[in-house]
Structure formats: structure tokens, C-alpha cells
Design brief:
The protein has 394 residues and is α/β, with parallel strands linked by helices. The chain has 16 helices and 14 strands.
């Protein structure tokens, strides 16, 4: 069996090696010619999979190591009897942690505690539900919108989208769709953005086309919104640098790029391939968990948001990713798409909060509670224990 896999997937050769010949290719080299003799193709979101790529090939199964599937022509795959699997929820923690990092940075910059703010979560699936949970842990008022879930569950806690428009922060976590009961392309258009609370901030970590770029640019330029945090862009990898100039934080579609998220995704695709071909899996996700050493961080005792931000920033530096993108996009326009791709290809290893141990003074109850709710491993430092023992014995 010949297996072509996007080289950005970690541990792919180790996982798939027993199934056949594994060929790891950079995204740009996954072409009709390079997949012609493949039986299995494993891609990420940059690769468009459909007739143009697969016609005339031997491909019998396609996997995407991503939660989104808008880059896959599933109707074509069905028509050709080609198996398919994606990785829903695989990087949900990573994306939720990205949103938390952005919100904490904005709270520190503005001096506005998150506990005084309302977040509207649009799409309450694998990612959105975690964002909602973390927002609640941070003391925020959380409003949730998810029409499909509202219909299937009858839960009145899922509000109409209009009911979220007075939120201080709106965070988007929907798939990109153009048909059905709930199309999401340009869900946030001129009408929707005009209804948002003046001075609100829009987060988009879903798909770029969920937001109308031209409308968002106008809203930001006219200070109708106080900011935007964008990880996804219309027209990727050729992004609108005029919009980048206006947003508060901009990153190159890497919110879900934690090592943990990638390991989860490739393991889910591997399991799907084994199931499709009737093979017994030989490796588990636990066996892949490399580089899982924890990092000791001593949380500073200052304002709550500042303390949380300082810990999160040492685990994930969202400002660094923002600077990285702005620097990359400062080149001539014809070079920008390649630079955007390269940022994603060369993205450094990032671990999720659960791989970080935080030493916190036991007297800082609120900090300890919130860090634990965000997924950090919180322990009482020996130095604090020693101080407490000396105080008790004196």
C-alpha cells in the first residue's frame, strides 16, 4: 500500500509505517502527479481534495488531520467510492487556549477585568464548548449560539444569534458552509457587524470566509469595533494585509497547531485508515506522547488577569505569533502567500496547558482555581510549603 502524507503531521511515519510505503511530502508538493499511485492520502487544510487532485489516481482513502472539511469535496469522494475520515475535536483544546491567551492579553492591555465582560460563543461544538467553559472559569458571562444544537436538544440555553450582539467579545467556532439550514459564509456581514455592541472585539478561529473582510475592515477603520483577533483569513494563503494592519492580533492559521492537537489528529486519521482496510492498529496516542515534559512556572502575585496572562504567555506567546505574521507580510506582495505557508510549515512546537506545572502561593486561591480550571497542573511549591511550616513552628 502506498501512503502519501503531508509532512506537517508529526509521527506519521511511525504510525503508518507498518501499513505500507509512506511518502511524506510538503504541502506544496501534494499534486495530481505525486498522488497518482497512492492508495491513501492524508492531508491538512491547505490541500484542496477533489476531482482536480484525484482524477486518474489510485487513491482509495482520504484522511484530513483537521477538524474542518471545507477543503474536501466529499460528494466527489462518495461518487468514486473513496473512503474518508477527518479529525473532529482533535485540536479543540489548542484553539480554546488560543482564545484564552488573546482575551487575557486584551484584558491586561485595557485594564478591564474579564469578570466584567460578556463573551458570545457562536458555535458550541468541540471548540466552542471549551471556550464557553474556560470563559465561565474566568468569571465571564457566557452566551451561546448554536442553531443545530438548539433544534436537536431543545435547550433554551442556546440563544438566537441576535441575543449575542451586546456581548463585549464574540468568538466564532462554526464550520464554513454555503447551504443547508445554517449557512455560515459571511455570517458576519455588514448587517451582523453593524448590530454588534460598539467597541466589541471579534475573534475568528473558524474559517476566514465566515466574516466579510471588507465589512470588518470598515468597522475597524471607523472604530465601530475596538478590535479583532484573527487566526483565519479569506483567501488564505493570500491574505488581505490591509486587514492585518487593522486587527489587534493576527496569526497565520495556527490556533490549533499545538503538538497535542496534531498528535490527536493524526492518530484519529490512522485509526480511520486501519478500520477502513481491516488492519489492527499497532500504536496508540499514548505511545506517541513525546516531549511531554512539564515546565515549572512561578505565577507572579499581582492583579488576577496579569497573573493569569503571565502564566499563559510563558506557555503560549500569542503576541510572538502576531509579530511573526506582520514581519512575514512586510515582503513584496508576490512573496506573501509563500511566506504565510512557511510560517505554518515551520511553526515551532507548542504544548497545551495540561503539560505545564504552575507553582502558586497557596494564599492565591483565585489564581490557583482559575489556572486549574484552564487545564494547568497546579501545585504548591516546596518553597511555599517550607515558609508555611516555619510560620507554623514559630
Amino acid at each position: 500500500m502506498n501512503i502519501v502524507i503531508d509532512s506537517k503531521n508529526p509521527n506519521a511515519e511511525m504510525l503508518f509505517g507498518h501499513l505500507g510505503n509512506v511518502c511524506l511530502l510538503p504541502t506544496a508538493e501534494i499534486t495530481a502527479d505525486s498522488v497518482r499511485d497512492a492508495d491513501v492520502l492524508v492531508v491538512r487544510s491547505e490541500t484542496k481534495v477533489g476531482r482536480d487532485l484525484l482524477d486518474g489516481s489510485k487513491v482509495r482513502f482520504v484522511g484530513t488531520a483537521t477538524i474542518g472539511t471545507d477543503h474536501i469535496d466529499q460528494e466527489y469522494l462518495k461518487a468514486k467510492n473513496i473512503g474518508f475520515v477527518s479529525a473532529p475535536g482533535s485540536n479543540s483544546n489548542s484553539v480554546a487556549e488560543y482564545v484564552v491567551a488573546g482575551m487575557l492579553l486584551l484584558a491586561v492591555r485595557t485594564g478591564t477585568p474579564l469578570a466584567r465582560q460578556t463573551i458570545g460563543v457562536v458555535g458550541v461544538g468541540n471548540v466552542g464548548s471549551k471556550v464557553a467553559r474556560m470563559g465561565s472559569a474566568l468569571g465571564m458571562t457566557v452566551l451561546q449560539n448554536d442553531p443545530p444544537l438548539a433544534r436537536s436538544t431543545g435547550d433554551v440555553g442556546y440563544l438566537p444569534l441576535e441575543s449575542l450582539m451586546n456581548a463585549d467579545i464574540i468568538s466564532l467556532h462554526v464550520p464554513l458552509t454555503t447551504a443547508g439550514n445554517d449557512p455560515t459564509r459571511h455570517l458576519f456581514d455588514s448587517d451582523r457587524i453593524s448590530r454588534m455592541k460598539p467597541g466589541a472585539v471579534l475573534f475568528n478561529t473558524s474559517r476566514g470566509a465566515v466574516v466579510d473582510t471588507a465589512v470588518l475592515k470598515t468597522a475597524l477603520a471607523q472604530n465601530r469595533l475596538s478590535g479583532a483577533v484573527l487566526d483565519v483569513w479569506e483567501g488564505e494563503p493570500s491574505i488581505d494585509t490591509g486587514l492585518l494592519d487593522l486587527v489587534t492580533l493576527g496569526t497565520p492559521h495556527i490556533a490549533g497547531y499545538s503538538l497535542d492537537g496534531k498528535l490527536n489528529a493524526i492518530a484519529m486519521v490512522y485509526d480511520g485508515v486501519c478500520k477502513h482496510f481491516g488492519k489492527e492498529p499497532r500504536h496508540t496516542l499514548e505511545a506517541q506522547e513525546q516531549d511531554g515534559h512539564a515546565i515549572d512556572i512561578h505565577a507572579p502575585v499581582r492583579s488576577l488577569e496579569q497573573a493569569l496572562h503571565d502564566v499563559v504567555a510563558k506557555c503560549y506567546d500569542i503576541e510572538g505569533d502576531d509579530r511573526m505574521l506582520r514581519t512575514a507580510m512586510s515582503v513584496p506582495s508576490q512573496e506573501r502567500a509563500a511566506r504565510f505557508r512557511k510560517l505554518r510549515t515551520d511553526y515551532p512546537i507548542r504544548r497545551e496547558f495540561a503539560h505545564t506545572i504552575v507553582d502558586v502561593d497557596p494564599s492565591e486561591i483565585a489564581v490557583r482555581k482559575m489556572l486549574s480550571a484552564l487545564g494547568f497542573v497546579v501545585k504548591e511549591s516546596p518553597r511555599f510549603s517550607s515558609q508555611k511550616e516555619r510560620a507554623q513552628n514559630s
